[in-house]
Amino acid sequence: MTVARVTSTSRKILHVDMDAFYASVEQRDDPSLRGRPVVVAWRGARSVVCAASYEARRFGVRSAMPAIRAERLCPQAVFVPPDFVRYKAVSRQVREIFERHTDLIEPLSLDEAYLDVTRTRTGLPTATATAQSIREAIREETQLTASAGVAPNKFLAKIASDWRKPDGLFVIRPHQIEAFLAPLPVGRLPGVGKVMEKRLEELNIATVADLRTLGEAELELRFGRWGRRLYELSLGIDENPVEPYRPTLQISSEDTFERDLPLGELESHIRRLAEKTWEGYGRELERDPERVARTVVLKLKTADFRILTRSLTPVERPTSLAQLAEIACELRARVPLPDDTRYRLVGVGLSGFGERHEAIAQRDLFAASASIGDEP
C-alpha cells in the first residue's frame, strides 16, 4: 500500500563520513601499517578502542570496545596510541573543503558532518555532483577517503552514507524513500535502541514496513509523542534542519586509571585534566569570545562504577588554569564517601556557559547583596 503523506521539505542534505578516520590517518602517515589490522588505542585492561581499520574490523574489532577484547579477537593487530592533534588538523582540512560549497555545516564529530547543499557556492547542478566533488577533494588533499550519503533530510542522508562504505556514495531520491525504508530493520531508525527494538518486537514489528502497518494512531496510543515520531520516520519525514552552530554546554576531559586510586592520590590527575579542559576552553573562546563558562565540575567513578559529580559556581568565574585546577581539587572535599573508597575514573569540566556581560552582571549583583548584608 502506498502512503500518501510525504515530507514537505525540499532540502538537499549530505552526510559525509570519513572512513575509519583515526586508523586511516595512522596508515597514511606510516606506510608500514597499510594493509594491516590497526587498532587506535592505548594498551591496557581499561583502555577502549578509539578506531579500527577495516582490516581489524574483519575480526570483529569495533570502536568503544575494550582494548583487551580487541586484542583477543585480533592477536595480530597493531596497537597505535591516539594522536588527536593530528586528527584535529586533518579534520580542519576537511572542514575547509566543506566550506567551499556551503556555510550550512553541522559537525557531529571530527570525522563526520551534515551539509545543507540546497544552495551552494559552487553552482554545481546537483547535490550528487557536490558530494562527488567533496569526496574527490578529500582524496586529493588529504590522501584519505570519505563516504557520503545524499538525501532530502538528515536521517536519510546518514543511513545513505553507511550504505556503500568504505569510499562510497549513495543517493536516496524523494520518490525512492518509501521503497528504500520499507525492508529496513526498525533498529536503523534514529532513537530506536535495543530496549525499544525489544518492545517493538513484542508487537511483531521487525521492519519499517511493519511500523507503517501498525499505523500512526496505534503507535501514538502505545508510545505517546515518540510513537508519532516513529511513524513519521517510517515515512522518511524529518524536518530537522542542519544547524551550523550549537552552543557548547560543557567542556571536559576525563581519564580511566590503570589501577583504582584513593581520593588523596587524585590531585596530580585532576590538575593534568584541568589543563586539557582549559586548552579546549581556549579554543571555544577563540570561536566565541563573548560566551564564557562559570561552573567547575568534578566527575568521579568509583571502583564499583558509581558515578558522582560535584560542581561549584564561584562569584568570580574561572579566568585561569590555576583557578580551574584549584577549584576542581577543592571539590574533593565535597565527596561524601568513606576515605577508603577507590576510584577508577576522574574528570574535570567547565559548564554554565553564558554571555560574558551576564556573568559580570551576576557577579556585581552578588557583590551588592553581600554588601547590604554586611551593614550594621
TrEMBL record:
What the entry lists under InterPro entries is as follows: DNA/RNA_pol_sf, DNA_pol_Y-fam_lit_finger_sf, DNA_pol_Y-fam_little_finger, DNA_polymerase-Y, DNApol_IV, IMS_HHH_1, Rev_trsase/Diguanyl_cyclase, UmuC
Per UniProt, residues of the UmuC domain are 13-193
Q: Where found, per UniProt?
A: Cytoplasm
Q: Which cofactor does it need?
A: Mg(2+)
What is the enzyme's main class?
transferase
Family to which this protein belongs: Belongs to the DNA polymerase type-Y family.
Function of the molecule: Poorly processive, error-prone DNA polymerase involved in untargeted mutagenesis. Copies undamaged DNA at stalled replication forks, which arise in vivo from mismatched or misaligned primer ends. These misaligned primers can be extended by PolIV. Exhibits no 3'-5' exonuclease (proofreading) activity. May be involved in translesional synthesis, in conjunction with the beta clamp from PolIII.
- The name on file for this protein is DNA polymerase IV
Q: Which organism is it from?
A: Lysobacter panacisoli
